[in-house]
Amino acid sequence: MTNWLLSLLRFRDTRPTRIPDALWQQTLAQHPFLESRRDADTAKLRALAGQFLAQKQFSGAHGLVVTDEMAVAIAAQACLPVLHLGLQLYSDFKGIVVHPGAMLARRSVVDAAGVHHFYKEELVGEAMEGGPVTLSWQDAAGSSEHQARGYNVVIHEFVHKIDMRDGTANGCPPLASRHAKTIWQATMQTAYEAFREQVVIAERFGGPPPWLDAYAATSPAEFFAVTSEAYFVNPARFEADFPSLQPLFDAFYRPENG
Ligand SMILES: [Zn+2]
User: Fold this and answer.
1) Taking a C-beta distance cutoff of 8 angstroms, is the pair 153, 136 a contact?
2) In the beta sheet, which residues pair with residue 107?
3) Measuring CA to CA, which of 70, 116, 117, 235 is 20 to 30 A from 84?
4) How far is the CA of 193 from the centre of ligand 1 (A)?
5) Residue 223: how many CA atoms within 13 Å on its side-chain side?
6) Angle at 180 (CA atoms; ends 178, 184), nearest 5 degrees
7) How far apart are CA 143 and CA 227, in angstroms?
8) How many angstroms does the Cα of residue 165 sit away from the middle of ligand 1?
9) d(CA 13, ligand 1 centre) in Å
């Protein structure tokens, strides 16, 4: 098939572009969660994803060729969190790097004795402050299979980008008022502590494991990203597990519906 996105980029056209019908229908069919919310607005999502594709630059790592199908699938998922907020939240970067599978990142830590330890960490995605978003296609491609457990790597990394817009990722996105920030931090803190406790009880005392990945218990920023994945891909289960976060996320992600 012709590479529609490539021809678009060749002309450096940054005007909003319309995603071809067949390609869009295929994307919706392969990612049922794009339509799973009660107020799903796929026409608006399609328009926003078109703008996103015109503004961003996709590149494949390790010889991976980013096809139109891959770019549209990533764009649609990346635009879901900003559907009612706008693409300006993503205006601080242009690049999206797609790896065939998980990446190995070099990390270092300094222990209490001042000794440096170097190790490699396996990543399925990474969002850099002011820089590109990196994704493993292997993980992004399986997103419909991960829907039931509330997992979505594309939404995860792009929520980190939203979180970073007002400084470092700390689990609190840019909010309109000090009051909104106070409510956000108090509600998230309570839910985060309850989740951490559930993880500890499951790991140490054999309690029931939480529905969401225990990785959410590593920091407030990861808790925000992981719970947001669930909010978008499995709203019914999210509402049942996190009743206090439901209205908080609704007010943030869908302000015009509040
Ligand atoms: Zn993360």
Assistant:
1) yes
2) 119
3) 70
4) 18
5) 23
6) 115
7) 15
8) 15
9) 32
pLDDT tens-digit map of 196-227: 999 999 999 999 999 999 999 999 999 999 99
Q: How far is the CA of 248 from the centre of ligand 1 (A)?
A: 20
Q: What is the pLDDT of residues 39-92, one digit of tens each?
A: 779 999 999 999 999 999 999 999 999 999 999 999 999 999 999 999 999 999
Bridge pairing between strands 95-99 and 133-136: parallel
CA distances from 162 to 37, 190, 196 (A): 21, 21, 23
Distance 214 CA to ligand 1 centre (A): 12
Instruction: Say what angle helices 153-163 and 220-233 make with each other, to 10 degrees.
Output: 130
User: Which amino acid type is present at position 91?
Assistant: S
Sequence-distant (6+) residues with CB within 8 A of 182 are none
Tell me the CA–centroid distance for residue 22 and ligand 1, in Å: 33
Residue 186 CB contacts under 8 Å (≥ 6 apart), including other chains? none
pTM summary value: 0.90
Domains, the chain, ordered by start: 4-257 (1.10.472.150)
Please give the sequence-ordered ranges of beta strands (E in DSSP) within the chain, or none if there are none.
Answer: 57-60, 95-99, 103-110, 116-123, 125-127, 133-136
Give the distance (Å) from ligand 1 centre to CA of residue 126: 7
